[in-house]
């Protein structure tokens, strides 16, 4: 990631970074159990889902701050990053669920940290998709069986997938990638930190929706409060509410901004 940052900032054709999207994610285990997943499952999931995000933030955010231009950072958590791994919550893969909770907390901390800094122009947002119509589940299932021969371990993983009935349903009724991008774009324009990308009626069961709304309702507002008056923005207004980096990227595409 550090090498990528160097390539970006050393290339005059790219200019500055208006939008950083830490979106990589994977799921490897097929169980809501803490004990059953192997240490390799735990380590691989956290390496991609958590440390991947941290590497992006540590490499790019200081450089984006130094630009002194309005720009934005988005991390992808998940609705699993607010619920639990029980049948009443996410219902599958405690490794994935725990990693997405970590992403939520890291992003909240970053938003709070930057908003306390004078003249900060980097807005931070956390995206919470439910199901999205991509190949994520198919790729995750392939990863679950990679290097696993016929036997008890393979049978256990197959059983775990069979128990995770809600997950394929959520994906089938989920948003398309284009719809997800529109939700993200609208949320960023409105200056939202928690950007929820799901449909209450179609995306997942009513219980899951109710739990998620209640979790968000008690999230401490101070974690995502506006920046102090010493900010370069007027008052406590978020720079993202006045200039969307996504909009700027589209409008000034010919300037080759990344």
Task: Write up this protein.
- The chain has 258 residues and is an alpha/beta fold.
- It has one domain (1-216): NAD(P)-binding Rossmann-like Domain (Rossmann fold, 3-Layer(aba) Sandwich).
- It is built from 10 helices and 4 strands; from the N terminus they run αβαβαβααααβααα.
- It has helices at 2-9, 39-67, 94-115, 136-144, 152-163, 166-172, 177-189, 206-217, 239-242, 245-251; strands spanning 19-22, 71-76, 122-129, 194-197.
- It has a 4-stranded parallel β-sheet with strand order 1-2-3-4.
- The longest helix is centred in the first third of the chain and has 29 residues, at 39-67.
- The radius of gyration is 19 Å and the shape is globular.
Short description:
The chain has 258 residues and is an alpha/beta fold. Helix content is 48%, strand content 9%.
Identify the notable features of this structure and list them briefly.
258 residues, alpha/beta, Rossmann fold, four-stranded parallel β-sheet
Number of discrete helical segments: 10
The residue fraction in helices comes out at: 40-55%
DSSP strand count: 4
Q: Architecture, according to CATH?
A: 3-Layer(aba) Sandwich
Strand arrangement across the biggest beta sheet: 1-2-3-4
Strand content: 5-15%
What oligomeric arrangement do these chains adopt?
A: single chain
The major beta sheet can be summarized as:
4 strands, parallel
What is the string of helix and strand elements? HEHEHEHHHHEHHH
Low-pLDDT ranges: 226-258
CATH topology (level 3) name? Rossmann fold
**Shape annotation:** globular
Which structural category fits the helices and strands?
alpha/beta
CATH superfamily: NAD(P)-binding Rossmann-like Domain
Radius of gyration of CA atoms, rounded to a whole number? 19 Å
Kindly report the average pLDDT value.
73
Distance, first to last CA: 15 Å
Assign the CATH class: Alpha Beta
Number of separate domains:
1
């Amino acid at each position: 990631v550090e090498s990528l940052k160097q390539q970006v900032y050393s290339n005059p054709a790219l200019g500055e970074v208006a939008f950083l999207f830490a979106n990589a994610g994977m799921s490897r285990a097929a169980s809501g159990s803490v004990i059953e997943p192997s240490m390799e499952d735990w380590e691989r999931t956290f390496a991609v889902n958590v440390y991947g995000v941290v590497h992006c933030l540590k490499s790019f955010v200081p450089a984006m701050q130094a630009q002194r231009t309005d720009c934005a950072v988005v991390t992808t958590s998940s609705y699993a990053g607010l619920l639990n791994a029980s049948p009443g919550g996410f219902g599958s893969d405690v490794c994935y669920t725990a990693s997405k909770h970590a992403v939520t907390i890291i992003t909240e901390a970053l938003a709070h940290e930057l908003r306390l800094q004078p003249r900060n122009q980097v807005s931070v947002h956390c995206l919470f998709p439910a199901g999205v119509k991509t190949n994520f589940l198919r790729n995750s299932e392939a990863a679950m069986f990679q290097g696993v021969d016929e036997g008890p371990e393979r049978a256990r993983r197959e059983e775990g997938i069979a128990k995770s009935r809600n997950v394929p349903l959520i994906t089938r009724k989920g948003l398309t990638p284009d719809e997800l991008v529109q939700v993200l774009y609208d949320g960023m324009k409105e200056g939202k930190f928690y950007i929820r990308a799901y449909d209450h009626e179609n995306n997942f069961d009513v219980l899951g929706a109710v739990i998620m709304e209640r979790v968000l309702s008690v999230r401490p507002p101070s974690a995502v409060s506006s920046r102090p008056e010493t900010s370069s923005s007027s008052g406590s207004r978020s720079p993202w509410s006045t200039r969307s980096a996504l909009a700027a990227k589209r409008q000034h595409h010919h300037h080759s901004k990344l």
